[in-house]
Design goal:
It is built from three helices and eight strands. By secondary structure, it is of the alpha+beta class. The protein folds into two domains: about 30 residues; about 120 residues, no CATH class. Strands 1-2-3-6 form a four-stranded antiparallel beta sheet, covered by helices on one side. Strands 5-4-7-8 form a four-stranded antiparallel beta sheet, with helices on one face. The longest helix is centred in the first third of the chain and has 28 residues. The radius of gyration is 18 Å and the shape is elongated. Keywords: Membrane, Transmembrane, Transmembrane helix. It holds the Pfam family DM13. It comes from Phaeobacter piscinae.
Length: about 160
Amino acid sequence: MCWILRLLSHGITLAIGFALGIYMLPILTAPDSPDTATLTASADGATYTGSFTRDLAGSDFLHWGTGRVSLSPQQITHMGALAPGPDYKLYLAPEFVEDEAGFEAIKATSARVGDVKMFDGLILDIPEGINIEEYTTVVIWCETFAEFITAAQYR
């Protein structure tokens, strides 16, 4: 009986450690976010702006974003904060969504811009061939766990 309790307690401890490792690894390995002056300079002259808020249907205490997102034909700049997590991707979507089901329904028609590795502001270059005029919304998505993080409608 004692060995069953030990096995159970060690298994629970291992599971908690694994989950914390998945959560903490992106934070520990994240590159430094751009400083405020760099973010501001990148956002100046943006064609469109939008806002990430915590009150979306798909956001919760582990999956959220706040702040302003600015788009120009060459770059996307986010000045704010994102909940840290693994394997975040930034997509441009053809319509506003605010949860997993909504994004999964339009993911095939959305354009993946790049990886999100910073959680306190970021600048991403828009790949050649992606036209921001064809989309209306910026979506942050966790690819590994198919989790909606946040979205901002910019037009």
